Amino acid sequence: MIRGAAAGTDHSARTLIVLAHGVGSRADLPVPVWLAISGAAFAVIASFAALGLLWPKPRLDADAGRPVPAAVQATVDSPITTWVTRTVALAVTGLVVAVALFGPAQPPENLGVYGFYITFWVGLVPVSLLLGPVWRRVNPLRTLHALLALPTGPGPAADRLDRIGLWPAAVALLCYAWLELAYPERSQPKTVGLFLVFYAVAQLIAALWWGPGWFARGDGFEVYSTLLGRLAPIGRRSDCRLVLRNPLNGAEGTPPLPGLAAVVVVLVGSTAFDGVTRTQWWQNGPGQAGGSAVPLATLGLLDTVGLVAALYGGATWLSGRISGAGGGPATYAHSLIPIAAGYALAHYFSLLVLDGQLTWILASDPFRTGLDLFGTAGNAVNYTAISPRTISLVQVSAIVLGHVLGVVLAHDRAVRVAPGRALVAQYPLLVVMVLFTVGGLGLLLG
User: Fold this and answer.
1) Is 398 helix (H, G, I), strand (E, B) or coil?
2) Domain extents for the chain?
3) Which residues contact 178 (CB under 8 A, 6 or more apart)?
4) Considering just the CA atoms, what is the radius of gyration of the chain in Å?
5) Is residue 123 within 8 Å of 352, Cβ to Cβ?
6) What does the pLDDT read at residue 29?
7) Residue scoring higher pLDDT (294 or 23)
8) What is the rounded average pLDDT for all residues in the chain?
9) Backbone φ, ψ for residue 29 (5° rounding)
10) Per residue in 366-398, pLDDT tens?
11) pTM
């Protein structure tokens, strides 16, 4: 992420090195790396075999779930709750942007850097997996658009929004991945502030043209949170009733919009490239070029995303040919959602738990004026809060569980669209799932 992106004081260099979030290493695993990877691949294959024997018919239902008490739903859907949470989110976002632009110049002292890259981007994963599409609910861009749209009226192209699908979100997420993984000045506070300002302006202009529905199509962060929220244990049925549910039922209900496959491929591919940049091969090769490595990093990012797209696209094409059901990449795109979530948790878990503490430390005195609002300004990061072995176990478990859940989702969809040849049709997808599992763990632990 922002490690090693900028030179600075000794404290800066030390902090940026710590931000290398692969804290768990091969030595921290209770078993050899080769055994962990082999066991993970076997778990994916075994789950596929078990599903073939025990899951002959579709079982997932997007509208399944137990309704929450009416009082809970009334509180959640209350306009007061909505506008209070949106106001708080807008105020916090404004503070992050202001500190990034006008606060301390050194990244380790700037709340904007840690607030955006760690607390927001990384924290969005567990929050969405637990509570659902929270960013859609509190998105400050929606709040700003609601105010701007008062004099301008509804978007003139709102009726044509469905035609573009999720392709704009895929582009937005790829741009963010380029900033995070390829741009050499990514850790500089002003880079963060300017990115957020330009991103907001572009999104608001698009929303004024396409209407408020644009954010569910074009805001990469909202789309990301919404897709992860499909795996949350709480969700909404088609009648908008809040229910407690099996997370796989939520994933099954993912609309197969154009561009859905592109979004999940970008998420999986960009996280895989993050793993590539932490290998010895990259750090001793292209990574040593500094600012001149931007073309190589850009090419590497595009190549990695392209490889994931080729593998997944080829597998779904073969699956459609074998089953005769067709459907294309969108048919099984929802099965990549838990894989993307597993990759994100595996790569960024230690970053959130350890270096994420700096967000709360810096928030006590965001402009370094001597304030100590929360009594944490003098605190240091506790890097012993979680052991390296625990981090390694979480990393392996997240990747394996993500792929197993992906196999379950793909199987249920296969027996739904091609009941006569479901198992055979899944062979190409199974091969890709195993390759992703082995590749993901190899990059993370090797």
Assistant:
1) helix
2) 24-445
3) 298, 301
4) 22
5) yes
6) 58
7) 294
8) 89
9) -75, 145
10) 999 988 999 988 899 998 889 888 888 898 999
11) 0.91
Place of tokens 């239902």: 61
Give the contacts of 259 (CB within 8 A, at least 6 positions apart). Answer: 164, 165, 166, 167, 168, 169, 170
Whole-number Cα distances in Å, 112 to 19, 101, 103, 157: 15, 8, 8, 35
Which residues are paired to 234 by β-bridges? 244
Q: What is the mean pLDDT of residues 307-324?
A: 92
Structure tokens at 204: 């608001």
Q: Which helix (H) or strand (E) holds 66?
A: strand 66-67
| Contact status, residue 164 vs residue 217, Cβ threshold 8 Å | yes
d(CA 44, CA 380): 41
Residue 190 confidence (pLDDT) above 90: yes
Split at pLDDT 50, 70, 90, the class of 6 is: very low
Question: At a CB cut-off of 8 Å and minimum separation 6, what does 406 contact?
Answer: 335, 336, 337, 338, 339, 433
From the list 277, 395, 260, 239, the residue with the least C-alpha distance to 335 is 260
Which helix (H) or strand (E) is 242 found in, with range? strand 242-244
Output the CA torsion 171→176→182→188 (10° steps). Answer: 150
For residue 221, count CB atoms less than 10 angstroms from its CB and return exposed for 0-12, middle for 13-18, buried for 19 or more.
Answer: buried
Q: How far is CA 297 from CA 273, 291, 310, 343, 446, in A?
A: 9, 10, 19, 20, 20
